[in-house]
Amino acid sequence: MIISEYPIQVRYAETDQMGVVYHANYVIWMELGRTSLIEKLGFRYADMEEQGVVSPVTGLQVKYKSPVKYGETPLIKTWIEHYDGLRVTYGYEVVKENGDVALSATSDHVCVKKDGFRPISIKKKFPNWHQAYVDATKEE
Fold first, then answer.
1. For a surface tag, which of 13, 25, 49, 70 has the fewest beta carbons within 10 Å of its beta carbon?
2. How far apart are CA 116 and CA 119, in angstroms?
3. Could you confirm whether 84 is annotated as catalytic?
């Protein structure tokens, strides 16, 4: 299984009055991790969008376990949890510098045509992307 690791330097603006990262910012970090994974596999969302295809989030599951604070540099770990040629579930962990898992999450996605949001088959429309996803989910 291929796992992307993306470090985040927590900025003051991402925290609340207690210096703890505001919960919605983790979703932004998940997007950074997802984009990093896709780039690690050799692709870019922008290339897909240029062909009139977008990949909206259809589901989100988040478990907050330990707070991340201003000044810390957690690592966003991202992998493909499930892929069936049409739908993708990405898995995430936000890991603090001391090794504690601050968050575990998944996000579900489907690729759709930009005009009309009609679902498309990644396997048919983007065969190279499809094969990279299949390969990325294999256990080593």
1. 13
2. 9
3. no
